[in-house]
Amino acid sequence: MNEKERMKAYNKYVNAKIPKTRPFPSLFNSFWVGGLICVIGQGINDLLLFLMPNLSEQSAWAYTLIILIFLAALLTGIGVYDKLGKFAGGGTIVPITGFSNSITSPSIEYKCEGIVYGICVKMFTIAGPIIVFGVVSSAFVGLIYYIVGLFV
Amino acid sequence: MEIFLDYLIVFLIGGFICMIGEVLIITTNLTPARILVSFVIFGVFLEAVGVFDYISSFAKAGINVPIIGFGASLTKGAISAVESQGLLGVFTGSLTSTSGGIAAAIIFGFLFALMCHSRTKK
Amino acid sequence: MKCQTIKFKKQPKIVGSYSIVGPKEGEGNFKDYFDYIMKNDFFGEKTFEKAERKMVENAIIGAIAKAKLEVKDVNLLVAGDLLNQIISSSYAARAFDFPYLGVYGACSTMAESMAVGAIIVDGGYYDNVVCCTTSHFSTAERQYRFPLEFGNQRPPVSQWTVTGAGACVLSLKGEGPKVTMATFGKVVDWGIVDVNNMGAAMAPSAMETMLAHFENTSTTPDDYDLIVTGDLGKLGSEILIDLMEEKGIKLGLNYGDCGQMYYRRDQKTLCGGSGCGCSATVFNSYIINKLKKGELKKVLFMPTGALLSTTATQQGESVPGVCHAIVIEG
Asked: Which of A124, C42, C140, C272 is positioned for an S-S bond with C161, CB 3.0–4.6 A?
């Protein structure tokens, strides 16, 4: 058996042997925690519109997201969000709170390397790709929209 | 009763989207960053083909709170800026519409980093 | 094939050993054997890296004291850890007035440092050599994986890096278990790409070293009271048993894995412990203890190391493993 075949056979054997996450509790937990975070967001949004009826829908959403981001940063700071994340997985990663956690957690972690080289440099180690991909792909959509607009 | 139904829809759709994220984690071994990136691009796609507003009209926070909403908001900004400013909008639009969220994350991240210390996991 | 095994003529003795662990490890299966259990992972320091350094210092001082020697009697320190540029060991070494030799074998460092130390002592070049190895969960986690506060789920194959440091003193004078043989291992890579699945990446290297050792010394697993691998974990040790069976060698009840045995089941470490502190602390507490009491007579200690780095992984490299074995007789 040559090297490549052995590696392939070994990988196949290992893949058959590795323990799998049981889908039941993890999927269910991510479902209800994720759903709950969305419901909280909706609640904040409705409350804002109730308290400040003059708010435009867009501004209300912006406020809602900012409040959620604040709450997630707070929970990250007091060491609760990582426990929540261990329990809920996708339920705490996919909502905007996960984005906030991915910025706050490296900031806290690398604080001991100083404010500039620690907090500021490492802040986007996890969230950087999200912003880069989001901006580049939406700019691409905007460009297509612009080019199509020239001819239509 | 109607408001209860509204919240139920928010819960179900939001939960479902998060569950897809969990399915990706379990089955593909993708890191969280890659999962978030794919959700953002999915949001950009939904907005680009014009479906997002329709879903948002009944799913509300169920689709706006997941990071899909962030992608859609980036694209919405880019498109509307292109309409008002032309080519410049390609560059200014996306970050203008999401500036609140990004700035909030940076500001709160920075402040809490100054105030809090990292802890060992148990 | 060339002989990989060294047989020591004068057989250096382990005259003193010391282990220091974190609070989670202090609740694990070996809790009664450790010399010191820290109350928290900071160990009175400001950062985890500094805490790890202090653990190394304390382990070295502890081992020297238990060997009934003084710091001025020590000729050399051989030490290693998991961090980049092995800073924990090197920075701890600057507190001591003896020469320092830094070694890196990832989680196999304990056997590597002891084998190197035993060669030097056996050759008669130095009298007393201290070997020390350490790892810290929080420093390893931020270097290899995610920030601690990041809310992710650990994959089911992942292992928990042990917070702990172990040190021992090798010398020809004095009383203690003897280091009789050492087998250095080759770097083996069977193409495992998943960095979390270190057990599977290291199991082939453990197999190669074990086969070479048995062949070179004409021994079988039954000749040892205990054969113990370092941190293959639950999955990796099962794989090793399968691999050895394929080669016609059956590992029986005298085989164990430090990582798999380290934590209690309810401590939720998934596949068990890992890191150089894992094998180092078990060796310098439980195994030495049993050897001294005579409950174990001949132990084959073979920690394994996954020689990965985040840079290599991000460039698409697979995870190579290495395994060094030493034989200790009571």
From this structure: C140
Q: Which two tokens stand for residue A54?
A: 């003059």
- At residue C186, the pLDDT reads 95
Q: Is residue A10 part of a domain?
A: no
Q: Are residues C200 and C272 in the same domain?
A: yes
Establish if A106 belongs to a structural domain. Answer: yes
**CATH number of the domain within which C116 lies:** 3.40.47.40
From chain A, pick out residues whose CB is under 8 angstroms from the CB of C46. 112
| pLDDT over 80 (residue A1) | no
Question: How much is the average pLDDT of C151-174?
Answer: 92
Residue B122 has pLDDT above 80, yes or no: no
Sort out which chain B residues have CB atoms less than 8 A from A100's CB and list them. Answer: 104-105, 108-109
B117 — contact with chain C (CB < 8 Å)? no
Q: What's the one-letter identity of residue C122?
A: D
User: Over 90: is that where the pLDDT of C288 sits?
Assistant: yes
Say if residues C34 and C148 touch (Cβ distance below 8 Å).
Answer: no
pLDDT of residue B3: 86
Q: Which C-chain residues 147-206 have CB contacts (< 8 A) with chain B?
A: 147-150, 152-153, 155, 163, 194
B13 part of a folded domain:
yes
Could you tell me the two tokens for C280? Answer: 């180092």
Which of C171, C194, C218 is the last residue before a domain boundary?
Answer: C171
Residue A116: Cβ within 10 Å count = 8
Q: Which domain range does residue C312 map to?
A: 178-329
Q: Measured between CB atoms, which of A89, A95, A135 is closest to B65? A: A95
Partner B contacted by C95 (CB < 8 A): no
Structural domains of chain C, count: 2
Contact B120 C152 (CB under 8 A): no
For residue B59, tell me if it sits in a domain: yes
DSSP H helices, A18-56, are 23-51
Closest CA to C216 of C328, C327, C330: C327
Q: Which residues of C are less than 8 Å from B25 in CB distance?
A: 153
Q: Which domain does B86 fall in, by range? A: 2-115
C184 and C306 part of one domain: yes
Closest CA to C204 of A89, A28, A9: A9
Residues 6+ apart with CB under 8 A from B96: B77, B81
pLDDT of residue B31: 84
Which of B19, B115, B120, B122 is the best substitution to test chain C (most C C-beta atoms within 10 A)? B120
Residue A115: which domain range? 25-127
Q: What is the pLDDT of residue C270?
A: 86
Q: In this model, does residue A2 exceed pLDDT 90?
A: no
**Digit-coded pLDDT (tens) for C40-95:** 999 999 999 999 999 999 999 999 999 999 999 999 999 999 999 999 999 999 99
What is the count of structural domains for chain B? 1
pLDDT-derived band at C105, boundaries 50, 70, 90: very high
| Mean pLDDT, all residues of chain C | 94
